[in-house]
Design a protein that fits this description.
alpha+beta, 3 helices, disordered C terminus, 6-stranded antiparallel barrel, 23% helix
């Protein structure tokens, strides 16, 4: 073997030997133990379910209207001689207060004339009755034991005519006295003036509106509701009080509440909306106790009707109900899909009749991808309070 060939092969042999030694060293090493990283499930917020009794609240809205709205219209004509100081827009008056007076002198004279007519008719009747009595006596003398052959003999027609004339005179007197009373205009209820168009010296005719007034004893709100909502509260018989109601609105940056009650349901379904209208009454809407403003007609209000109480139900947030009507609960650190029976839902909460037990942890947060049995972690140490929220409910039974 020549020296050149040996010089060429020697580096190759060294490299091969080194590679073999390195392979032996690597193969003799023990592989490090494989450490599996723990799988962390998504964080979720939960609430603890409580079986309790929950009063159903039906919520709607509507516009306040006056229960009593009256146009003040004179029934007699004449010149206005007196106007009550409260007969101005926004003025309040009491039942029986005289709001305006029409000049009564012509009507007083008419009463005097009618009284004279009654007196004349009374005298005429008395004269006819006396003459009839004389005629009867003469007949009895001339025809003893016989009845008159005609009423004319004893002046019966004349007596009847005199009685009719007296009755007509008395009726005319009553009419003139009534017209005299009508010169003083008052109303049989407490009220407030909405508008007026009359003043002292003005001549007014019959049938012309002089003012518009509202009664202040009671206001009404007409509340449109889905017909299914009628199952949750009582609609009373005529003249009775039904379910209690709270009416509220914001005025001057503050929320104000008035108490009322359901009084009736209107007689037909709205042809466009297919809703029924329940009428709510609010007593004394103009009282301004404790800084509360008057509840004026035209105000748009929220209406909260307190219905019957459901027993043994679980109230959960509405968003905790998943697509398909189930909920997610946590069992031993894993997510489980639970079917439930829903009694009623509103815009904030759902009332569950069955499917949830006392102490169940219901997931209230949203997850993008969910599988039954997946591991989850609770983000909130203390479960969210599940106290039923009913004051913001809306109509719409589930």
């Amino acid at each position: 073997m020549s020296g050149k060939r040996i010089k060429f092969l020697l580096p190759v042999v060294v490299l091969l030997a080194g590679a073999a030694i390195a392979a032996m060293i690597i193969s003799s090493r023990k592989a490090p133990p494989r450490v599996e990283r723990p799988r962390h499930g998504p964080l979720v917020e939960v609430m603890e379910a409580h079986v309790t009794d929950v009063p159903v609240t039906v919520v709607g809205n509507g516009e306040v209207v006056a229960k009593v709205a009256v146009d003040v219209v004179p029934q007699v004509a004449g010149q206005v001689v007196k106007v009550h100081p409260s007969l101005v827009a926004g003025g309040f008056f009491r039942a029986g207060e005289v709001l305006l007076v029409i000049d009564p002198r012509d009507y007083e004279l008419a009463v005097e004339r009618a009284e004279a007519s009654v007196a004349r008719a009374q005298v005429t009747l008395e004269r006819e009755q006396a003459e009839a009595e004389v005629a009867r006596e003469e007949w009895d003398v001339l025809h003893p034991g016989e009845e008159p052959t005609s009423g004319l003999v004893v002046r019966e027609p004349q007596v009847r005519q005199s009685k009719a004339e007296l009755a007509a005179a008395i009726a005319e007197l009553s009419a003139t006295e009534l017209n005299l009373q009508r010169t003083r205009i008052s109303l049989p209820f407490d009220g407030v003036v909405v508008s007026e168009s009359v003043d002292v010296g003005q001549f007014v005719g019959t049938g012309k509106r002089l003012a518009k007034v509202y009664g202040t004893d009671v206001a009404e709100v007409r509340v449109p509701l889905d017909s299914r909502e009628l199952a949750w509260f009582s609609v009373p018989a005529q003249g009775e009080q039904g379910a209690p109601v709270e009416v509220s609105t914001t005025f001057g940056g503050a929320r104000h509440v008035w108490k009322g009650y359901v009084t009736r349901m209107e007689a037909e379904v709205d042809q466009k909306s297919r809703m029924v209208h329940v009428v709510v009454e609010i007593p004394h809407p103009y009282e301004t106790a404790e800084g509360r403003p008057a509840l004026l007609p035209g105000t748009f209000v929220d209406v909260r009707i307190v219905g019957r109480t459901l027993t043994g139900v679980v109230a959960i947030p509405r968003h905790a109900v998943r697509e398909g009507g189930g909920v997610w609960v946590i069992e031993d650190g894993t997510l489980r899909v639970r079917e439930i029976e829903i009694l009623r839902s509103d815009r904030q909460q759902t009332l569950v009749a069955s499917g949830l037990a006392q102490g169940d942890l219901v997931i209230v947060s949203t997850l993008d991808a969910v599988t039954d049995g997946m591991t989850v972690r609770v983000a909130n140490d203390d479960p969210i309070d599940d106290t039923p929220v009913t004051d913001e409910a809306e109509g719409g039974a589930a």
